[in-house]
Write a structure and sequence with these properties.
The chain is α+β, with helices and mostly antiparallel strands. Helix content is 47%, strand content 24%.
């Protein structure tokens, strides 16, 4: 089998897989947009032993339980306010642990990353086409 054809098939398959992940993220955002509960959370400091940047978000769910949400890498990039600031949070009733910040950048950043990755892989497939 020709190596160029094999690379084309691998890039196309990987591109479709990454595109599927982007669509899956967009469906999750639409589900949060339509059925999610919106509450205000407070940004708190991370423990001193934690080397990650940014803060943690503390909010109460629909049952009154306190939930600690870690925005991870998306926090500093997507406009997380400084410690002590309030931020809107959205979550599904069935999964308060899978909350997201209610900002456009935080909701769409994962989908944009997957879409950009699939575009690069599809571009590679086009460039190696024999």
């Amino acid at each position: 089998m020709d190596a160029g054809l094999m690379l084309l098939a691998l890039c196309t398959g990987l591109g479709f897989g990454l595109l599927l992940l982007a669509v899956r993220q967009l469906v999750a955002v639409v589900r949060l947009w339509g059925r999610g509960l919106r509450v205000m959370g407070v940004v708190t400091a991370r423990p001193a032993a934690d080397r990650l940047r940014g803060g943690l978000v503390v909010f109460t769910d629909h049952l009154g339980r306190t939930v600690v949400f870690d925005p991870r890498a998306y926090g500093p990039l997507c406009g997380l306010p400084p410690v002590g600031g309030s931020v809107p949070v959205v979550f599904l009733r069935s999964r308060p642990g899978a909350a997201r910040l209610w900002t456009l950048r935080h909701l769409l950043a994962p989908a944009f990353g997957w879409f950009l990755s699939s575009t690069v892989v599809f571009g590679t497939a086009v460039m190696v086409t024999p």
